[in-house]
Amino acid sequence: MDSDTLLALCLSYNGTYEDHPFGEDTTVIKVRATPTSASKMFALLWITPNTTRINLKCEPALATQLRRTHPWITPGYHMNKTHWNTLTIRTGEPVDDRLIHDLIEDSYDLVVASLPRRDQRLLSWPPSEENVGK
Prior knowledge:
alpha+beta
């Protein structure tokens, strides 16, 4: 999975947008219900030649399990190590694209779950049964 695909996937969720508060080299993907509501980060993306890193929020028990199972998943760089993982994707090295997709979705869901219910409704979250997987 390349960096353009990662970014597009992150931006495919309701209410998401990219920001660059740390400079152009770091893309922060945030979610908010309206242009005037508070936003929260759910992904942080760094792109360098041949390597893309993405920080994603994760449930603590799953975060630990993923780190044990996948050497390219490590504790969140510059983040709370309990709740965030860093996925390091190097050109030419195999990664599980489906797992990455699921982890991005999980990160979005964890962050949106922490928003006020009004904002969750505006974001059409949680997704209805008929929309899951579409």
